[in-house]
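Human: Respectfully, please carefully check these C-alpha cells:
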Amino acid sequence: MTVGTIRPGGRTARVRAAVLEAAADALVEGGFDRLDLADVARRAGAGKTTVYRRWGTAAGLVADLLADMAEQSSPRTDLGSLLEDLRANARLVQRTLTDPRQGALFRAVIVAAAGDARAAEALHRFYAVRIAEWSSCVDDAVARGELPGGTDGAEVIRAVSAPLYYRLMISKEPIDEAAADRAAEAATAAARAGVFVRSAGAVE
C-alpha cells in the first residue's frame, strides 16, 4: 500500500493525491496536533482555498487519507489454507507497521482517533473495510470444513492483528515475522477450537 499514489482522473484526482501525500508527510513529521491545512496546501502546491473548501478541518483530511489508504490496500490472498491465509495477513500488517513511513503514519492516525470523534470514525471505517475483505478467508475455511460453522471471521482477523498493534502502540517490542507468524498460529488454533463461534442470538 502506497499512500498518495496518483491515479488517472484528471486535475481533481491529481490535487487530491498531492494533498493526501502532503498530509501523510505532515502527520509523520509532526503528528495530528500539528497538522495544519495551510501547511498541507503549501507542501502540495495547492491553493489554500481549495484545501479548506474540500476538507474543512484536519480531521476531515485524516478521514479522506484513511479512505484513500483503504482504496489502495493490498487485496487478501487465497492460499487454500486458513493458516497460510492468516499468516499472509499477519505479515502484511507486520510489513506495514515496520515500514518507517507507514508505521509512523498509523501511529499518528491512531493517536488522532483517540481524541477526535471524526478521526475515530474514519479509522473505524478503514478497518471495517480491511476486516470485511480478509474475513472471507475464514468463511472459505468454514466451507472447506477447517473450522466449525458459525465462526466469526471478523473476530478471527482482529485476533491476528491485535498483538501486532499492541507492540506498535504499547509494548514497543519488535514487530518481526516471528511475531506475525505467532499471531496467525494462535488465531488459527483458537478458531479451530471454536473460540470464535458466534453465540446464539449474536448480532452481526
